[in-house]
Amino acid sequence: MFDKILIANRGEIAVRIIRACREMGIKTVAVYSEADRDALHTMLADEAICIGPAASSQSYLNMERIISACVVTKADAIHPGFGFLSENARFAELCEKCSITFIGPSAEIINRMGNKSEARKTMMEAGVPVVPGTKEPVYTAEEGLKLAQSIGFPVMIKASSGGGGKGMRISRGPEDFTENFQNAQLESVKGFSDDTMYIEKYIEQPRHIEFQIMADKYGNVVHLGERDCSIQRRHQKVLEESPCDVISDDLRRRMGETAVRAAKAVNYENAGTIEFLLDKDKNFYFMEMNTRIQVEHPVTELVTGLDLIKEQIRVASGEPLSVKQEEIKISGHAMECRINAENPSRNFMPCPGKITNIHLPGGNGVRIDTHIYSDYTVPSNYDSMLLKLIVHGKDRQEAIAKMRSALGELIIEGIETNVDFQYEIINHPVFQSGETDTGFIPEHFPQYCK
Length: 450
Ligand code: MV4
Known about the structure:
Blueprint: E1 4-7, H1 11-23, E2 27-33, H2 40-44, E3 47-52, H3 63-73, E4 77-79, H4 89-97, E5 101-102, H5 107-114, H6 116-125, H7 141-151, E6 155-163, E7 166-171, H8 174-192, E8 197-201, E9 207-215, E10 221-233, E11 236-242, H9 249-265, E12 270-278, E13 284-290, H10 297-304, H11 308-316, E14 333-340, E15 342-343, E16 349-350, E17 353-354, E18 357-359, E19 366-370, E20 377-378, E21 385-393, H12 396-409, E22 411-413, H13 419-427, H14 429-433, H15 440-444
């Protein structure tokens, strides 16, 4: 087992990882930017090293500085958390070259799954159902139009390097195809320096269902059930839950087996997520694979009783998985609300600043993952997520009741937050009925989607 781990991240996930290490008797090294001298992760770790100015590009994305911090402190491994360098194949490779364990999959797998059109082809060849569409990359609107006509409109045009809706356009028919293709491709060239595109049949009002998988170095792969992440605004997840109400035990078994097959097809190692689109007729299609631990991992922890961060550390150190598929049981229902420093009535503009007073809810089945404290100043340089409010109840109804109660008790003063917006979602009759798909927020909160 590792003696010391460096956490190449900040905020709540850095705190989450430090706590897991401490429970396991592993020493921790925090890295921090000049804007994070007073950050909780900086204070909680056994050692802390400043790696540069506030701008992420000069600190949390600065590979050389982070590797140097690791060498100086003699840490054995780096946990990248999510965002920042977590899906950067060059960083994973740099760690490998410096004999530092990168807690995650190999650089080769990160690369392969980061290329969405290649991931799609890999999955098709492994017998994993993908959305009907192209198998080979598409580079011109002319060849794209022919392919779109054979797929049948409407289609979704996607950039191979895309993500978060970037480089993605719907085309409803041949008359709007060329313009949409060119716009999507231009966005991709500008954002990712990559003109590789692919085309899929457009799935109307799908649910975003993702399966958590975990794999060790010995080819063992398990799935830990699904998360329904359909409640999104502009491709940002707002609320996640597990299990998904419309997935039967039989469908869960079939989707889970598919997720495991997808991971095995690439000899996957460590924690990963297989994203599916689930259509109205309960057909499911592979969409993407995320090669990191995700923001919403706690909902899976609450329904499975497993600690995913500890499991990541154990498998990275060479231990086999601590559980077999038959031992994994999904119990009760968990839900997570992301609380951000943002102003919903000003188009969710980020609102950093000083927190003058906070009160955190608690009680049976209430978990809070956060790095904020009273008098803490939220810096303007990073993501606006402040806190994850996660609840676990015996069923969905009880989870909703706990979330409603906890949101009502949560107080964060001094800065604007989306707490009231989350409260409106939780209280919405359509949300409570479970009839939610990716169109939920635009349809029921159009005033927030302009
Ligand atoms: C789709 C789709 C419908 N059909 N692909 C959005 C982000 C990117 N990861 C993929 N996305 C979608 N791909 C096909 N073929 C609908 C979406 C989509 C969506 C997906 C998940 C959660 C929220 C979404 C909101 C709008 C569109």
